[in-house]
Structures are given as C-alpha cells and as structure tokens.
Amino acid sequence: MAYDKFTILTSTAVPLPIENVDTDQIIPARFLKATKREGFGDNLFRDWRYNGDDTPKQDFVLNNPIYSGKILVGGHNFGSGSSREHAAWAIYDYGFRCVVSSFFADIFKGNSLNIGILPVQVTPEFLDKIFLAIEADPNAELEVNLPEQSITILSTGESESFNINGYKKHNMTNGFDDIDYLQAMKGEIKVFQEERIY
Amino acid sequence: MSNQANTLFDKVWDAHVVRQIADGPDVFFIDRHFIHEVTSPVAFLGLESRNIGVMYPERTFATADHNTPTINQHLPVQDPLSANQLKALEVNSLKHGISHWGLGHARNGIVHVVGPENGITLPGMTIVCGDSHTSTHGAFGAIAFGIGTSEVEMVLSSQCIMQPKPKKMRVNVNGVLGKGVTPKDVTLYIISKLTTAGATGYFVEYTGDVFRSMSMEGRMTVCNMSIEMGARGGMIAPDETTFAYINGREHAPKGEKWDEALTYWKTLKTDDDAVFDKEYTFLAADIEPMITYGTNPGMGQGISKSIPTSDQVEGGKSTYDKSLTYMGFHENESMLGKKIDYVFIGSCTNGRIEDFRAFASIVKGRKKADNVIAWVVPGSHIVEAQIKEEGILDILTEAGFELRQPGCSACLAMNDDKIPAGKYAVSTSNRNFEGRQGPGARTLLASPLVAAAAAVTGVVTDPRELL
Ligand code: SF4
C-alpha cells in the first residue's frame, strides 16, 4: 500500500512495558470484520483500553493524556501470535509510525515494514533506558533516524544503532512497496513457474 | 544449488527462490495459496486500486471458516458484517476465477483441515495463507507459513512474496509416549520448554521416534503449534505414513504423475551431516498430559503439577502476575480439580477425525457434567461426515453432547461462539491469550483427552484415570 516515506522521526513516545504483547491484544478478533483497511485505530488495544461498557480504563497508558507521540515502546516479544495485519493497521491508524522493542515476533515485524511502520529492535538495556527516560519526563523525545539506522534519547543523548536490510530501508525511505518490485519482474516469475512440478 | 549437506528445509526453500536480492529478502515462489474471508478482502481492494489481476488463480483456494456460524448454516448469516465478509470472498473468488468452498459446500471447513484432506497440500510445496497456523501443512514436508494481508496481495498478483530465509532449528523427541499422552501434549511440552519466543527467526524440523510413529493428524497438530513458540513454521520429512495419507485424495497426483511425485518426495529429507543453527532433544518419557495455566501457550505444564512461582519462570514478574490475575489463579495451586465452565473441542489444531475419536474414547459410557457447556465442532464437513459414519455421533449424543457445524468457532470467537467473561474453558485450540475466546474468557489449552476428561467430570482431571 502507499504510505508516508520514513526518514527521521523525532517524537515523544508512549510506553507499554508489557512482555509478549500479542496481536489479539492489539486488535481483538471480533473487530476484524471490516473489509477495508481504515478505522482500526479506534479499537487498538480495545480490551486493555476500555471496560466492557465502553468506558475508558483510566489506568491504561493510551487513556493517560500525559503520554502521546508517534512512537510506541513495547516490552520483549512484541506482536506475537496471529498473523493479522490488522494489528499493524490499527497501530498505524492510531497515529504511530514506529514501534520500539527489544524483540519482535516475525510476522508482525514483516507486516509493519510492509505498511510503513518502522520496527526498531534495541537491546534490553537500551529499552530500559528509554522506559526510564519517559518515566522521568513524559515529554522526553526520541529520534529515530532510518538513513543512519540509529535511535537516540534526546534528553540524555544516549544512542544505539539498529538493523534493517538494505532493500527494506530503501523501500521505507522512498515509500515504495514490494508489489511495485514484483510487478516489474513478472516475466522472470513466469519462466520460473513453467518449471515448477506442481 | 550447492553440494554441501542440506536440510529438508534448505532443499525445499532453495527450489523456490526466483531471485536473491542483495542485502534483502529472497523473491520466493508460492505453489499453493489459501485464502479466507477475514484476511483477504483488503488484498483484493489493493489489486483493484492498482488495477492488476490475479496471476495464477488456479494456485489459490478459498474457503470460508473464520467468521461463520456453527449452527443453522443453511440460514442467511445474521451478523451483517460477517455476511458482508463472506460475500466479499465469494464475489472476489468468482471474479478472479478462484476455487471457492463457501458456507455449506461439501468440502468447506477450516482452511488447514480442508487443504490436506483434499490432497491440495503435498510434500515439497511452498504454501501460504493469511493465517499464522498455516504451519500445519508442514506435516507433509512442505514449507508452510502464515502471511499478512499485504503479502496475500503479493501472492495474488505475482505468486511470490519477499522473504528473508529463516534460520534452522531441529527438535528431536525420542522414545515412546506414555498412556494418555497425545501429539498436543508433545507440542505443548516443547513450547513450555522453548517459551513463546524461543523459536522466533527459525524454521523447525521435527525428528525422532515420536514423530516417525505419529499419524498425519498428529503431525499436523504438532506443526500447527510451531508458531506458538515464535517459529515461522515447522516441518516433518515425508515418509510412508505421508504417502499413504495422500494417495487417492481428490487433488493428489494420480497414475504416472503419482509415481513421479513419489520419486521426488523420497528425496525430501535432511542429509545425515547437515547442520542446524539450533537443536533441542527431549525424551518422550518426560511428557505428561499437559495443560496451560496462563495467558500464552508457553505457560503450560504437566497436568499433575502445581502452578509455578514467578521466580521459576522466565520473563518479568509483573507480566507473570498480570497473567495469573487475569486467569484468577495463584502460585503453587494445583490445576487438578479446578472447576470448568466450558469445553471446546475443534479448531485446526485438534478438529480432525482422530481428535474426535480420542474425545469419544473417554466420554463413551459417561455423561457430560451438568456444570459444563460443551462445543464440539468438527474441522470440516468431511470430518463431520466421518464422525457420523464411525458412530462417534451416537456416543456423543448418548453422553449429552451436541455436534455443531464446521468452522473456526471458539478458537478465535469471531462468531457467536464466545466464552463469557470470567468463565473457564478447557480448549483444544491453540491460543490462550487474554480475550482470545471472548472478552474476559479464561482458556486452558489441552488435548482432546484432557478436554473430554474435563467435560465429563466438570473439573480439570487427569485423563489417564479415565482411560
Ligand atoms: S481454527 Fe483458529 S487458528 Fe485455526 S485457522 Fe481457524 S482461527 Fe486460525
């Protein structure tokens, strides 16, 4: 899909220091009935965010006005479970463009990259530093620099580099997607297909 | 490719790489693609907005399963949003010339049940679907894994996706399983040892006596759950059991084609000196009937054990406490004897004929406990028919159980089959995440035998006492 180019993102961040956040929490199955991509942000973290009667749960971070920003910082093993891309759509639709964690589940990571969310994997130590910085000052900003592959806590100046393959980096910084690439090589795929035994 | 010793996974993977992108993923060719109503509509919208078609419609198969009712399937679907999704699948399939097994079709059922039972799934294939439990098909020696909707769009439009090659892991389980210990227990045991993230970044091959002597149904249960330890997928080298299962099925190769296929399939095994990035070995004798006590599939243990304390498990205390609080459990409590409200047998993990045979072996001659509501949901119409033919339905009816119609049902609770908040369900499905089976629902994952034992006693019970 078409998405915004990603180069340098400077923003405050929303902390969610919970491990193994699975995609059923990010967007519960009963909200997957739409046949369009937009609008899932309203139900992002639905059951952590709202009570059964739809009133907001005051102790959940998205309901706390002191935290905001385009970066979501999650605990270890973020995005496990169901392959639903709706989870990434919900995060994007809510307004996040980057998720930071010390470890991501594979499918969630791939889905995010495909729709223009940058997953940034940092060391557990650096993740703790980010949580501490936000705890000390909810207005603390992070700078995520994709061309440089670095993430910096601006209030302390602490910085770490992160990995991303060259192909995906090129796509994200230019707003390209895989389908453009694949469409351009259909002739090669056709030849390959003819050789398949199945 | 290279002459060095290769794993089964390497052999199948390398045969499907159309192009290697430098410092990027492989362009990976997909032999078979399954779609269902929930994760495909937006992919078709994408095709439309780009004004491109489906490249090889004969390589894609549609079935409705995730969002379908399990009673009165002959009536119009009540929920307008669900009806709309089902309609979209039908219309999109028709428009693009894709085979569509909609609600009520004789071959309809859960995607990972119908693929194998109709011979669409074959050894050496690459298979994807917008559903993480696509790993099920690895039981046939295929590379099979779940994808997101953007990738569904890629497969539809180019029959390829972009994939970095995962690392390789081997999990050996040797020896003979004890009485009452099933393939579900084997996989829950492995996941409890590796944790939910233990195999992230890897593709797993399962080897050893236990898998060699396991039925295809059992192998599917094990490969199905691979994703629950973070693995992209799991696979088992094909053997005589595999070939016997496939032979004669609707889409399986026939005649000369069969002989050719067989020759190829027999080459699909890991070379003796091939090297894995990681390897684990377990003993069958250490595995008991398993049950989960927490909110991820790694939080499981032998049914007779008591709930661990936070310092006995990996991960942070606050996450562990949150999990037990959600479940309404405490450290050091025994699982045996805990009162149960619901039992669900079904899903792509344990919704095959063998699972209902196992369930029936315990309920036979007993009665469903009064405090238990049970949902018995076959994985497909073919399984449903087998249940009737084999007399299992009579056993169920006599014991006070009703058989529902096929679909994903309470596995993800998108339809009306939701466990109410706070209630306990012993479930043969694959995920015990918070709210997975309905907002506030509390799930205990287990085998069909453990589910049956809970259904007739009303509490968590060791099935070995009833066998
Ligand atoms: S039964 Fe559950 S896990 Fe399997 S395909 Fe359906 S929703 Fe997915």
UniProtKB/TrEMBL annotation, chain A:
Q: Which Pfam families match?
A: Aconitase_C (PF00694)
Under Enzyme Commission nomenclature, its number is 4.2.1.33
User: What is known about its subunit structure?
Assistant: Heterodimer of LeuC and LeuD.
- Pathway stated in the Swiss-Prot or TrEMBL entry: Amino-acid biosynthesis; L-leucine biosynthesis; L-leucine from 3-methyl-2-oxobutanoate: step 2/4
Protein's recorded name: 3-isopropylmalate dehydratase
Enzyme class at the top of the EC tree: lyase
Which family is it part of?
Answer: Belongs to the LeuD family. LeuD type 1 subfamily.
Question: Quick one: signal sequence residues?
Answer: none
User: Which keywords belong to this entry?
Assistant: Amino-acid biosynthesis, Branched-chain amino acid biosynthesis, Leucine biosynthesis, Lyase
Source taxon at top rank? Bacteria
Function (record text) = Catalyzes the isomerization between 2-isopropylmalate and 3-isopropylmalate, via the formation of 2-isopropylmaleate.
Q: InterPro entries from the entry?
A: 3-IsopropMal_deHydase_ssu, Aconitase/3IPM_dehydase_swvl, AconitaseA/IPMdHydase_ssu_swvl, IPMI_Swivel, LeuD
* Gene3D superfamilies per the UniProt record, alphabetical: Aconitase, domain 4
Keyword check for Transferase: no
* Aconitase A/isopropylmalate dehydratase small subunit swivel domain ranges (all copies): 5-123
Task: List GO molecular-function terms, semicolon-separated.
Answer: (R)-2-methylmalate dehydratase activity; 3-isopropylmalate dehydratase activity
User: NCBIfam families recorded for this chain?
Assistant: leuD (TIGR00171), PRK01641.1 (NF002458)
Its UniProt entry gives the catalysed reaction(s) as: (2R,3S)-3-isopropylmalate = (2S)-2-isopropylmalate
* Naturally occurring in which organism (per UniProt): Dyadobacter arcticus
From TrEMBL, chain B:
- Its Enzyme Commission number(s) read 4.2.1.33
The protein's required cofactors: [4Fe-4S] cluster
Cofactor binding note from Swiss-Prot or TrEMBL: Binds 1 [4Fe-4S] cluster per subunit.
Among InterPro entries, the record links this protein to: 3-IsopropMal_deHydase_lsu, Acnase/IPM_dHydase_lsu_aba_1/3, Acoase/IPM_deHydtase_lsu_aba, Aconitase_4Fe-4S_BS, Aconitase_4Fe-4S_dom, IPM_dehydratase_rel_enz, IPMI_cat
Q: Which residues form the Aconitase/3-isopropylmalate dehydratase large subunit alpha/beta/alpha domain?
A: 10-458
Q: Which reaction does it catalyse?
A: (2R,3S)-3-isopropylmalate = (2S)-2-isopropylmalate
Pathway terms, separated by semicolons: Amino-acid biosynthesis; L-leucine biosynthesis; L-leucine from 3-methyl-2-oxobutanoate: step 2/4
Annotated [4Fe-4S] cluster binding lies at C348, C408, C411
Renumbered to this chain, the signal peptide range is: none
What are the protein's UniProt keywords? 4Fe-4S, Amino-acid biosynthesis, Branched-chain amino acid biosynthesis, Iron, Iron-sulfur, Leucine biosynthesis, Lyase, Metal-binding
| This protein's record includes keyword Metal-binding | yes
Look up the domain of life of the source: Bacteria
Q: Enzyme group, top EC level?
A: lyase
Give the Gene Ontology MF terms in alphabetical order: (R)-2-methylmalate dehydratase activity; 3-isopropylmalate dehydratase activity
Record note on quaternary structure: Heterodimer of LeuC and LeuD.
Assigned protein family: Belongs to the aconitase/IPM isomerase family. LeuC type 1 subfamily.
Function text:
Catalyzes the isomerization between 2-isopropylmalate and 3-isopropylmalate, via the formation of 2-isopropylmaleate.
Q: What is this protein called?
A: 3-isopropylmalate dehydratase large subunit
Q: What is the taxonomic lineage of the source species?
A: Bacteria, Pseudomonadati, Bacteroidota, Cytophagia, Cytophagales
Encoding gene, per UniProt annotation: leuC
